[in-house]
Amino acid sequence: MDKMISSIYFDFESRSYSKIRKVAMFDFLQWTGFKRDVPPGTLIYAGEEKNFSPSISGYAYDEQGMVELSIENTEDIETQPGRTLFIHVQGVHKPALIKEFGHAFQFPPLALEDVMNTGQRPKQDWLDDETGFIVVKNVSIEDDELHNEQVSLFWRDDFVIVFSENQTDMFDGILSRIRKGKGRIRKGGTTYLVTAILDAIVDKHLSALGKLGEAAERLEADLLEKTTDDLLNQLYRIKRETILLRNTLVPVQDIFKKLLAEESETNEITLAYLRDVADHHMQAVEGTVALHDILKSMIDYQISLIGIRTNSVMQFLTIIATIFIPLTFIAGIYGMNFQYMPELQWRYGYFICIAVMAVLGISMFIYFIRKKML
């Protein structure tokens, strides 16, 4: 499942972006060291090549209702007193757009750099006394292969801005709840909205874990019937996807720890919701670890079976060789070219020799069968 990816670098002389040859690399290592020798805060997109233009969706809501905003650039974005502003940017591969948001909302360059680096480790920071920042990974399973995209969030008391690496509908459920006024999402403010976004992402994590678990269960049933190279390759691939999912989920624990540590800044309803989401995430982490252990035991079992089969073949060949050792010894004696060997001149010598060899071979064969060695 190693992906072929197009790397982009910034040419400081021509002030333009260029493509480097495509390279194959592990997902979690694909952008390691990519921005070497580049000043911190330089906005360079590090990710898979995209063939769509970024889009901006905006929504303003309060307890009375929601208004969908028409936004073409950051100049169209205005916070509205008493309303929560939810901005969703789909596509982070245009540095100019990300830079506009940085200027409009005074986001620090290092945070914007993290938005454009799709290999960024999940984390949560407070950029200042009012601005929170989160980087997480949204995951999905297609054809038993794990696909992840980076999601970055900025929020203050009056707005939440989400940057997603790809075009996605993962927030449709949240928008539907806001439109219909279901639950407490209209009353909860930005912290509640951030928690709802994290909830949607954790649900994706649980869904991906469930699909990997189903694939592992099907594979286990097939392996019990017959072991083939293709099934073993599938087993290895599912284990690899599980490791990647675990590496995606584990760092998110620190995000929830930091958010839950801000109890004094969070109302009781939102805090209870956040704890529930954190519990779901812990369930996903524990499930991923358990699935990894199961897959590891399946691989160990297959290795043991291969060893047992190999030992059985070697045992069979050893027994056959053992049976033929005395027969070869007898044949070797009478195959020597001595002039005086009385048995060679005896009329029935050949038949007696064959009979002795047959009786000896059959006796040893019966002995090995009774000892359950054959």
Automatic annotation (TrEMBL):
Membrane-related topology note: Multi-pass membrane protein
SUPFAM superfamilies in the record: CorA soluble domain-like, Magnesium transport protein CorA, transmembrane region
Domain of life of the organism encoding this protein: Bacteria
Main location: membrane
UniProt keyword list: Cell membrane, Ion transport, Magnesium, Membrane, Transmembrane, Transmembrane helix, Transport
One Gene Ontology MF term: cobalt ion transmembrane transporter activity
Location(s) in or outside the cell: Cell membrane; Membrane
TM helices/strands, residue ranges: 316-336, 348-369
Reactions this protein catalyses: Mg(2+)(in) = Mg(2+)(out)
Function: Mediates influx of magnesium ions. Alternates between open and closed states. Activated by low cytoplasmic Mg(2+) levels. Inactive when cytoplasmic Mg(2+) levels are high.
UniProt similarity note: Belongs to the CorA metal ion transporter (MIT) (TC 1.A.35) family.
Protein name: Magnesium transport protein CorA
Organism taxonomic ancestry: Bacteria, Pseudomonadati, Thermodesulfobacteriota, Desulfovibrionia, Desulfovibrionales
Gene transcribed to yield this protein: corA
